[in-house]
C-alpha cells in the first residue's frame, strides 16, 4: 500500500510478556498477586495512555481485583517499569509522567459498570491526582470535580539535569486550561518530594475553547476559541524556563459552534464520552521543520454520498476544500477521515473509499498531489483501524496498542509510477518518490557517496531514472525530462536550507489548471508568511540572465572581439569546479564518453550559471555563509549534469552499446536510434530551460545523428538547432569517412554550416579540391578586404606562371604583392602554408573540374 507503517512499539509484544514474567516472580515469592497482578486474559484491559516527548510510553491495566496499575515502557532501553498502583476500581482518563520519572499525574473516573460502589469523593465525577513515585510516597489531590480532566507534563528542551520545578497542564471539560508549577526537593538521599504541596501556584492558560491539540515534540498548545461565531486558532509555545508565548491568532473558515468539545493528542484519544460529543469531527494541526503549518479539518458527515474536508496551508496563506464521492449509495461510513503527517505531505484517507496525498510544500500545484478513489489496491490496503497522528511521523493505533512510524512506501509508489497512465498521477508520484527519501543520507546514496547501507536506496533511485528514460514520450501534458531534472535537483539541496524553496524552481510546470520573530520553527514560518505577503515571481531563479550573457559571449567569439580574459577565465574556472565536484562524487567509471572534451561553449554556460545562481542566492539567503552557498550551487549544478549522465548511462547500458559506436564509418542500429531519440528529448528539454549539458554531449549526439538519419534529415536537425556541430565531432568525421561521393556530399554539407573560424581549421584536415577551394576563398577574402587599387605595370612576367591565362596571372600577382606587404599579420595567423601559389593551384583544379577536363 502507499503507506508503510514501521512498528516502534507493540503492547502485546513489548509489555505483555514482561507482565506475565512479573506475575510468575510475584507468585513464586508468595505475594499472591501483588504489584503486577495480571492474568492471561487481562490483555483487554491493557491499553496505552500517553506517549511523552522523550518517547516513553505510559500504559495501564487492571488486575483480577480491579486495581489500576500504571507502567512505563522506555523506547530507548526497551525496558518496562512499574510506576504506581491505585487500589480502587476506577477508569483512567489521562496520565502523564515528568521527565525525571519522579512525579505521576493521573485523572480517573468512576467505573460505569452497574453494581459498582462510588469510589470517589461524594459529588465528584473525576479525580485528578499528583503522586510522588521516587519512591512511592505522598498523593496529592489536584482536582475532584464533576467533569473530565486531562493532564500533561511539560518537557524541557534540555534534559541533562533535574529541574527544581515541574510544570503540569490540566485541561478541563469545562473548557479551560491551567498550568501548575510544582517545586520538588530531595530528602533522605534520592527521595524526591513536592515542596509546599499545600499551595501549588498555577496560571490560567486558556479558557472558553472548543478544541485543543498538544504537540509533544515541540511543546506547543494549539486551541480554538469562538469569537462572535468565528473560529480563531491560537498557538502557545512553552519554554523550559516556565515562560510561554502566544505565537499567533489565525481565523479559520470553519464552524465549530455545534461540534462539542474535542481534544487531540492529550493521551490516547479513545474516551467513549469524547467520541460521543464529537462524532466524526476531525481537526488537527501539522507542522514540520521547514516552517509549514497546516490545519486539516473534516466536519461531521451529513451525507452518505460524499464527504468534505479542508486543508488550510497557513504557511502559504491559502486553503483548499475537497469533496470526495463515497461510491455506491449502500456504502456506509462508520468513522471520519484520517489525516496523517508525512513530513512534506499530508495523507487524507477513508478506508474503502479514497486516498489523497497532498503536497504541502507546493500546494499551489494540484498536479503535485495524488488522489485515488474506488476499489483499487492502494485504497483496499489502507489501515482500517483509526490512527492517531502524533508529532512528526509517529502514529498510534489505540485499538491495538501499537505505535508506528508512518512513511510513504517507496517501492509501492515506484510500481504505481510504472503502471499509471494519467499524466497528473505521473507528475504527483514522481515528486513524491523524489522527496520522500531526501536528506543528506539519501543524497549521498544517489550516487554522490556510497556506503554499505545505501545500496538499496541507490538501486531505488536508478529505477526512477530507468522509468524516466523509458517514458520520455509517454507524458503529453508536461515535459518529463524537464520535470525530473528540476525536481530532483531541487530536492537534492532543499533539506540543507529551507529558504531555497522560494529561490529555486521546483517544477517545470508553473500552473496546471502574523507572527513574532523567534528562532527555529517560528523563524521559518515567519519567512514563509513574509514571502507570501511580499514576494514577486522574479525571486525564483531562472536562467534568463545566463541566456543573454551566454549569447553575448558566443557572438563576441564569432566576431573575434571578447571582453577581458580574466572574466572569461573566471567563468571557465567555475565550470572546472562543477565538473571536478561531479567527478569526485561519482565513484563508478562512466560507459559514455562524457565530460572528457573541452566543449568551451558548454563550459561557458556551466560557469555562467554558477556565477548567476551564486549571486541570486547571496542576495536573498540572508544569514547563510558564503562558502555554504557556493558549495550548494556546485552541488545543485553538478546534480543537474549528473542526472543527465545517469539517464544516458541507463539507456546506453540497456541497449548494450559499445565504444565502436563513436566511429562515423558505420550504419546506425535500432539501439543507437533509441539513444539518439533520448538525447534529442534531453536537448529539447534543456534548451527551453537553458540548462547546461555535460561536455561531450553534443559530440556524441552528432555522431549518433550521422549514423541514424538520412542526409536531408540530418541537415534539417542541424539547421533547426537540434544538432550542434562541435569541433571534436567534425574533426572525427573528416578523419573517419572516405572520399566517396556520398561522404563528400556529407562533408561539404557539414563544412558549409560551420562557423568561419572552426570551418577554416576543419578544411585543413580534408585533403580534397573542395576544401582547398574553401581555404583559398577565405584566404583571398581576408587579404583583399581592405585592398586599395594601386597603379601597376601593364606588363606581366609570363615566365613566373605555370599557365598563360592573363586574368588569373594578374590576380595572383595582386595577391603576391598584398601578401608581401602584410607579412606580420600573415605570419601571426599561422597561415604560412597558404599563399598565392596555393590559391593558383586550387583555382586551376576547380576550373578543371568545372570544365570536366
UniProtKB/TrEMBL annotation:
<dbReference type="InterPro" id="IPR028010">
    <property type="entry name" value="GSAP_C_dom"/>
</dbReference>
<protein>
    <submittedName>
        <fullName>Gamma-secretase-activating protein isoform b</fullName>
    </submittedName>
</protein>
<dbReference type="InterPro" id="IPR026172">
    <property type="entry name" value="GSAP_fam"/>
</dbReference>
<feature type="domain" description="Gamma-secretase-activating protein C-terminal">
    <location>
        <begin position="642"/>
        <end position="748"/>
    </location>
</feature>
<dbReference type="Pfam" id="PF14959">
    <property type="entry name" value="GSAP-16"/>
</dbReference>
Amino acid at each position: 500500500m502507499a503507506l508503510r507503517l514501521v512498528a516502534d512499539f507493540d503492547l502485546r509484544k513489548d509489555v505483555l510478556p514482561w507482565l506475565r514474567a512479573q506475575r510468575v516472580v510475584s507468585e513464586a515469592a508468595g505475594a499472591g498477586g501483588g504489584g503486577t497482578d495480571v492474568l492471561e486474559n487481562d490483555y483487554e484491559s491493557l491499553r496505552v495512555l500517553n506517549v511523552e516527548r522523550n518517547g516513553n510510553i505510559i500504559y495501564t491495566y487492571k488486575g483480577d481485583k480491579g486495581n489500576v496499575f500504571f507502567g512505563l515502557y522506555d523506547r530507548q532501553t526497551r525496558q518496562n517499569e512499574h510506576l504506581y498502583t491505585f487500589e480502587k476500581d476506577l477508569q483512567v482518563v489521562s496520565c502523564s509522567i515528568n521527565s525525571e520519572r519522579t512525579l505521576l499525574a493521573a485523572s480517573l473516573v468512576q467505573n460505569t459498570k452497574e453494581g459498582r460502589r462510588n469510589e470517589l469523593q461524594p459529588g465528584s465525577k473525576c479525580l485528578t491526582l499528583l503522586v510522588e513515585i521516587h519512591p512511592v510516597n505522598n498523593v496529592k489531590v489536584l482536582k475532584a470535580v464533576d467533569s473530565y480532566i486531562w493532564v500533561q507534563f511539560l518537557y524541557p528542551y534540555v534534559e541533562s539535569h533535574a529541574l527544581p520545578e515541574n510544570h503540569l497542564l490540566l485541561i478541563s471539560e469545562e473548557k479551560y486550561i491551567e498550568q501548575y508549577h510544582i517545586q520538588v526537593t530531595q530528602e533522605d538521599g534520592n527521595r524526591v518530594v513536592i515542596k509546599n504541596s499545600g499551595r501549588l501556584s498555577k496560571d490560567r492558560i486558556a479558557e472558553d475553547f472548543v478544541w485543543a491539540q498538544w504537540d509533544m515534540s515541540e511543546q506547543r498548545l494549539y486551541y480554538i476559541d469562538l469569537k462572535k461565531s468565528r473560529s480563531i486558532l491560537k498557538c502557545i509555545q512553552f519554554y523550559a524556563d516556565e515562560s510561554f508565548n502566544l505565537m499567533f491568532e489565525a481565523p479559520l473558515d470553519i464552524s465549530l459552534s455545534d461540534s462539542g468539545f474535542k481534544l487531540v493528542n492529550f493521551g490516547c484519544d479513545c474516551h467513549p464520552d469524547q467520541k460521543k460529543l464529537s462524532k466524526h469531527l476531525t481537526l488537527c494541526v501539522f507542522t514540520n521543520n521547514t516552517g509549514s503549518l497546516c490545519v486539516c479539518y473534516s466536519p461531521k458527515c451529513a451525507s452518505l454520498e460524499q464527504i468534505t474536508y479542508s486543508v488550510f496551508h497557513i504557511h502559504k496563506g491559502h486553503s483548499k476544500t475537497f469533496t470526495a464521492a463515497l461510491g455506491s449509495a449502500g456504502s456506509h461510513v462508520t468513522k471520519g477521515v484520517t489525516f496523517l503527517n508525512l513530513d512534506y505531505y499530508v495523507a487524507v484517507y477513508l478506508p474503502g473509499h479514497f486516498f489523497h496525498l497532498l503536497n504541502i510544500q507546493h500546494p499551489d500545484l494540484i498536479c503535485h498531489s495524488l488522489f485515488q478513489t474506488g476499489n483499487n489496491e492502494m485504497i483496499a490496503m489502507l489501515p482500517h483501524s483509526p490512527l492517531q497522528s502524533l508529532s512528526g511521523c509517529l502514529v498510534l493505533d489505540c485499538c491495538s496498542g501499537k505505535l508506528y512510524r508512518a512513511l510513504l512506501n517507496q517501492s509501492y509508489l515506484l510500481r504505481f509510477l510504472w503502471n499509471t497512465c494519467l499524466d497528473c498521477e505521473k507528475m504527483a508520484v514522481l515528486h513524491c518518490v523524489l522527496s520522500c527519501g531526501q536528506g543528506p543520507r539519501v543524497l549521498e546514496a544517489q550516487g554522490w557517496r556510497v556506503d554499505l547501507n545505501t545500496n538499496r536506496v541507490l538501486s531505488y533511485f536508478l529505477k526512477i531514472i530507468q522509468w524516466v528514460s523509458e517514458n520520455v514520450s509517454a507524458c503529453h501534458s508536461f515535459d518529463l525530462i524537464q520535470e525530473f531534472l528540476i525536481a530532483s535537483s531541487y530536492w537534492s539541496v532543499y533539506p540543507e536550507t529551507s529558504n531555497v524553496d522560494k529561490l529555486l524552481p521546483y517544477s517545470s510546470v508553473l500552473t496546471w489548471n502574523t507572527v513574532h520573530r523567534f528562532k527555529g520553527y517560528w523563524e521559518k514560518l515567519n519567512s514563509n508568511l513574509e514571502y507570501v505577503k511580499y514576494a514577486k515571481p522574479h525571486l525564483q531563479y531562472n536562467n534568463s540572465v545566463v541566456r543573454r550573457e551566454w549569447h553575448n559571449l558566443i557572438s563576441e567569439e564569432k566576431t573575434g572581439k571578447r571582453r577581458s580574459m580574466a572574466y572569461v577565465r573566471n567563468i571557465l574556472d567555475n565550470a572546472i569546479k562543477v565538473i571536478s565536484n561531479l567527478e569526485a562524487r561519482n565513484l563508478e567509471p562512466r560507459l559514455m564518453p562524457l565530460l572528457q572534451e573541452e566543449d568551451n561553449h558548454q563550459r561557458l554556460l556551466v560557469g555562467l550559471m554558477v556565477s548567476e545562481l551564486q549571486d541570486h542566492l547571496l542576495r536573498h539567503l540572508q544569514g547563510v555563509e558564503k562558502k555554504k552557498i557556493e558549495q550548494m550551487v556546485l552541488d545543485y549544478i553538478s546534480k543537474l549534469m549528473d542526472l543527465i549522465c545517469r539517464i544516458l548511462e541507463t539507456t546506453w547500458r540497456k541497449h548494450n552499446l559499445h565504444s565502436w559506436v563513436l566511429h562515423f564509418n558505420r550504419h546506425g542500429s535500432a539501439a543507437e536510434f533509441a539513444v539518439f531519440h533520448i538525447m534529442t528529448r534531453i536537448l529539447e528539454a534543456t534548451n527551453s530551460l537553458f540548462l547546461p549539458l555535460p561536455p561531450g554531449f553534443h559530440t556524441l549526439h552528432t555522431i549518433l545523428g550521422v549514423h541514424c538519419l538520412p542526409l536531408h534529415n540530418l541537415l534539417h536537425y542541424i539547421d533547426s538547432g537540434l544538432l550542434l556541430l562541435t569541433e571534436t565531432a567534425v574533426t572525427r568525421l573528416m578523419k573517419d569517412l572516405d572520399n566517396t561521393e556520398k561522404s563528400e556530399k556529407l562533408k561539404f554539407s557539414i563544412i558549409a554550416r560551420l562557423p568561419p573560424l572552426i570551418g577554416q581549421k576543419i578544411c585543413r584536415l580534408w585533403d580534397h579540391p573542395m576544401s582547398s577551394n574553401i581555404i583559398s576563398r577565405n584566404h583571398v577574402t581576408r587579404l583583399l578586404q581592405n585592398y586599395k587599387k594601386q597603379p601597376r605595370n601593364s606588363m606581366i612576367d609570363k615566365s613566373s606562371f605555370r599557365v598563360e591565362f592573363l586574368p588569373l596571372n594578374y590576380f595572383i600577382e595582386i595577391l603576391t604583392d598584398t601578401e608581401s606587404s602584410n607579412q606580420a599579420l600573415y605570419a601571426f595567423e599561422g597561415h604560412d602554408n597558404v599563399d598565392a601559389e596555393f590559391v593558383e593551384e586550387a583555382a586551376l583544379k576547380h576550373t578543371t573540374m568545372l570544365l570536366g577536363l
